[in-house]
Amino acid sequence: MNHERLIQNLEAQAMGYRAMLEALEAEAMLPASCSVSDIAAIQQEKEKAVSQVKQLEQQRLNVAQEMALAAGITAEAKLEELLPLCDPLGAVRLMDLKRELLLLVDHINPLARENAEKAQVRANCFVEVEDNLHRVLQRTNLYSKAGKVRPKSGSVFFHRSV
User: Fold this and answer.
1) For residue 10, what are the domain limits?
2) Residue 8: alpha-carbon gap to chain centroid
3) Residue 149 and residue 142 in contact, taking contact as beta carbons nearer than 8 Å
4) For residue 104, what is the domain's CATH number?
5) Predicted local distance difference test score (pLDDT) of residue 8
6) Does 151 fall in a domain?
7) In a domain, 128, yes or no
8) Cα separations (Å) of 79 from 31, 43, 111, 151?
9) Among residues 36, 3, 10, which one has the least CA distance to residue 119?
10) Is 162 within a domain?
11) Per residue of the chain (162 residues), what is the pLDDT tens digit?
């Protein structure tokens, strides 16, 4: 039955969102002195979870559309409109999964925002250090546009004859 496929899909989505939440929590606990490989590993986990959930969401839309069209409901029907097509236990399970998914998303959004802000602060530190290095090590041209050497103040030209 289609509602069983829908239940399986939502359960898989919940697992994907839990994996995303775990990756975000791991990212939040990273110390400021963490290595780039640590960040890359967590980013890879997040990307894997996002792609999995995205694929599952597309499948869910297809299953829900099949259910709706088979019942003569509009293809864009909401879950609540599909519940009468399910058995009572299936309808309860679908609503439980919907609540679970909404809770997971409610936990993921602020954590993702907080992690993004921390990442931006880390990136700003690198930019600031880079700017300071450029300012301190700023070199001026030794040659003028006319092709003549301009001696720097405090510099000495060495001449060596061969």
Assistant:
1) 2-136
2) 25
3) yes
4) 1.20.58
5) 96
6) no
7) yes
8) 42, 32, 27, 78
9) 36
10) no
11) 678 999 999 999 999 999 999 999 999 998 877 888 888 899 999 999 999 999 999 999 999 998 888 888 887 888 888 888 889 999 999 999 999 999 999 999 999 999 999 888 877 777 777 777 767 776 555 555 666 666 655 555 555 555
| Locus of tokens 């399910």 | 86
What distance in Å separates the CA atoms of residue 29 and residue 17, rounded to the nearest whole number? Answer: 18
Tokens of 103: 């809770």
141 occurs within a structural domain: no
Which residue is it, tokens 């110390």? Answer: 31
Helix (H, G, I), strand (E, B) or coil at 89: helix
- How many angstroms separate the CA atoms of 103 and 97, rounded? 10
- Spatial distance between the Cα atoms of 132 and 138, rounded to a whole number of angstroms: 10
What does the pLDDT read at residue 106?
Answer: 97
What DSSP assignment string belongs to 128-152? HHHHHHHHHT----SB-TTS-B-PP
pLDDT for position 145: 64
Residue type at 58 in one-letter notation:
Q
Give the residue among 3, 54, 48, 45 at the shortest CA–CA distance from 26: 45
Question: What is the tally of structural domains in the chain?
Answer: 1
